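Try this one yourself first.
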């Protein structure tokens, strides 16, 4: 079971153990070049490959990428279906390589809305890489932080109906194992590319004490120097978890 930053003070090091990224700016990257937005998504896949590689080398243990939010269904139908196709393609093409590199792949989110073929590919990819441990790569797809908190509450109440009779007994230790990221420590570093400074319903519960880094760089342009700069910035943060500087 993973420790909670609000219940214990986590051990930290200069390199983030868990990095969570909102990969934003694909559409604007393409529009600037007079290309269709979908060209930005295709280019963005290359950045994913680079970042996975670099995180493995840097010693990041958990990398979580926001690929499709529970609100992204509101986009035009052709964009949504291109994103689904890219997801299928990536699973078909990349899983073998990930498996060889020691990467364990997981997909979190409400998968029930995906078509059966995609769900099947996800299941196979997770099974095929389940023995790996060098880097835990998680793709958040049809994920929403509010959905996660609600689904965890539902699962908890189904498993422990007696807690509903005594709600004051309920604590984090009961609840957090049902969150979809329960297998990972809380993110140390959060990066959002593309210039927006918001969470867009990403890991609402888990980001409580995460260091938040925002960059104007569009995701397709985000390169190894940009990631290095984010790591350096992270290394200089004083993570107090509620304490004073003098106590550290
Ligand atoms: C992020 O890029 C990718 C997804 C949300 C799937 P966007 O598509 O949001 O790009 P912008 O923000 O419109 O530039
Ligand atoms: C957040 O980006 C979701 C992903 C990157 C997958 P959005 O582009 O959907 O966020 P908003 O709509 O600008 O807040
Ligand atoms: Mg966006």
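Now uncover the answer:
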């Amino acid at each position: 079971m993973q420790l909670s930053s609000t219940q214990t003070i986590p051990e930290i090091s200069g390199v983030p153990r868990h990095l969570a990224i909102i990969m934003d700016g694909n559409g604007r990257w393409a529009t600037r070049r007079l290309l269709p937005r979908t060209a930005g998504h295709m280019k963005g896949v290359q950045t994913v490959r680079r970042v996975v590689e670099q995180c493995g080398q840097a010693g990041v243990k958990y990398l979580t990428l926001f690929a499709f939010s529970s609100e992204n269904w509101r986009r035009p139908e052709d964009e949504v279906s291109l994103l689904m196709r890219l997801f299928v393609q990536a699973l078909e093409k990349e899983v073998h390589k990930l498996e060889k590199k020691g990467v364990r792949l997981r997909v979190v989110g409400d998968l029930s809305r995906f078509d059966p073929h995609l769900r099947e590919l996800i299941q196979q990819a997770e099974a095929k890489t389940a023995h790996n441990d060098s880097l835990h790569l998680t793709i958040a797809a049809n994920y929403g932080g509010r959905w996660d908190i609600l689904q965890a509450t539902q699962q908890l109440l189904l498993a422990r109906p007696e807690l509903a009779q005594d709600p004051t007994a309920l604590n984090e230790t009961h609840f957090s194992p049902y969150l979809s990221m329960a297998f990972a420590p809380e993110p140390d570093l959060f990066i959002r590319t593309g210039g927006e400074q918001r969470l867009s319903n990403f890991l609402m519960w888990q980001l409580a004490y995460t260091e938040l880094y925002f960059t104007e760089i569009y995701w397709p342009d985000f390169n190894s120097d940009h990631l290095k700069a984010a790591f350096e910035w992270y290394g200089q943060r004083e993570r107090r978890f509620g304490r004073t500087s003098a106590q550290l």
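Discussion: The pocket of IPE (ligand 1) is lined by residues 23-28, 68, 72, 83, 194 (CB under 6 Å). The mean pLDDT is 97.
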